[in-house]
Design a protein that fits this description.
Elements lengths: L1 E3 L3 H12 L16 H10 L15 H19 L3 H15 E8 L5 E7 L5 H19 L5 E3 L8 E3 L12 H22 L11
Antiparallel strand pairs: 1-3, 2-3, 4-5
Helix pairs in contact: 1-5, 3-4, 3-5, 4-5
């Protein structure tokens, strides 16, 4: 597997989504990675192609167990209070699968640095290398403050904010963000019913 060093946002996105497959985050729907087939769907949806799963070979129960262990490890790195701990842990993820660096041309003919995984790396180790490069790239380019807890008070999710503005607040904006907007709307509506004199305009001056 060849992982582009400059495209850290891809690995960071995979790291975010992997962490948030947990039943501890998905309280309403439960565990996402319920079996090898679910792991296969996760990889397909994220367009992650692992050399350890050649020619469409589906993941095994061992691959799933190792990926769940990687998920716990990734969550711990996102929660780490010091950036040095993130760097050490992410470097370890990369080192497990790495066979070294390669300077290769992209489709346009430009040179790019790639990390190449070793021929004996497992599926989870290759996935871990992708996650590790994502974490390291964000740490170096955007800073440790981009590793965040979801702002929803009822969500235990985490995310890595790779947006340009750096203002992302929710681990799953389409879910947690909308849910929080609905909750805020209902709270304002209930407050207006209790205190109707506060809901109108300023009235005559």
């Amino acid at each position: 597997m060849k992982i582009i060093f400059s495209d850290y946002s891809f690995g960071a996105g995979v790291a975010t989504d992997l962490v948030n497959t947990s039943a501890a985050v998905r309280l309403s729907t439960g565990e996402v990675l319920t079996g090898p087939g679910a792991l296969e769907r996760f990889l397909h949806e994220h367009e992650v192609r692992l050399d350890a799963l050649p020619r469409g070979r589906p993941p095994t129960g061992t691959d799933l167990a190792q990926t769940l262990a990687l998920r716990r490890e990734t969550r711990a790195l996102l929660e780490a209070g010091h950036e040095d701990a993130v760097a050490e842990g992410a470097n370890g993820l990369v080192a497990r699968a790495s066979a070294g660096l390669s300077l290769l041309r992209d489709p346009a003919g430009n040179w790019e640095w790639h990390m190449t995984t070793g021929p004996r790396a497992s599926a989870a180790e290759e996935l871990g290398a992708l996650v590790g490069i994502g974490l390291l790239g964000v740490l170096r380019t955007l800073g440790h403050t981009r590793f965040r807890h979801c702002a929803s008070p009822v969500c235990e999710g985490m995310f890595i904010d790779t947006s340009k503005a750096g203002r992302r607040r929710y681990c799953m904006p389409g879910l947690c963000g909308n849910r929080q907007n609905v909750a805020n709307y209902r709270a304002r509506h209930q407050e207006g019913e209790r205190h109707p004199d506060r809901g109108g305009g300023r009235g005559p001056r």
